[in-house]
Design goal:
This protein has 143 residues and is of the alpha+beta class. The chain has two domains: 61 residues; 74 residues, no CATH class. It is built from three helices and seven strands. Strands 1-2-3-4 form a four-stranded antiparallel beta sheet. Strands 5-6-7 form a three-stranded antiparallel beta sheet, with helices on one face. Helix 1 runs antiparallel to helix 2. The N and C termini lie close together (11 Å).
Length: 143
């Protein structure tokens, strides 16, 4: 099973990215032509045009989660089930502690990976995903 742990972040910046890219490209062309009316710095012009798409791609790659029969892979790190305990913890948050974008949800889930030998938590991630995806992840971890 493949799932991305940062889907909401990618969607948010994916909606903003085209506007930032076009504005940065316009700013960069103003710097190159010398027609820019404001003081522009090339690094800021390159941020939206070059660096923002690279950051979006990097965020996608680093938060890609692949659940297999013997291990779970997050980004480039593999966690074998023989050495690590993987669990999804459900919790209920009071209204004052809920995230601003999902205020009306009561139930939240966390993905926790800990070492079996020491019990030390090596990875924790808030799962801001739908209930259906979380149930599929739980089923894939049980198999």
């Amino acid at each position: 099973m493949k799932v991305n742990l940062s889907r909401s972040t990618l969607i948010f910046y994916g909606i903003l990215a085209p506007f930032i890219i076009v504005g940065s490209f316009y700013n960069l062309m103003g710097i190159i032509n010398g027609t820019s009316t404001i003081i522009s710095i090339g690094a800021f012009a390159l941020f939206g045009f070059v660096l923002l798409p690279l950051l979006l791609f990097s965020t996608y790659k680093q938060n890609r989660c692949i659940i297999q029969s013997d291990r779970i892979s997050i980004g480039k790190k593999d966690y074998a089930f023989s050495s690590y305990r993987v669990s999804i913890i459900d919790k209920q948050l009071p209204l004052s502690q809920r995230p601003i974008f999902s205020t009306f949800r009561k139930n939240y889930s966390d993905l926790i990976i800990s070492e079996k030998s020491t019990g030390r938590v090596v990875f924790t991630q808030n799962l801001d995903r739908s209930t259906q995806v979380i149930e599929k992840m739980k089923a894939a971890l049980q198999a």
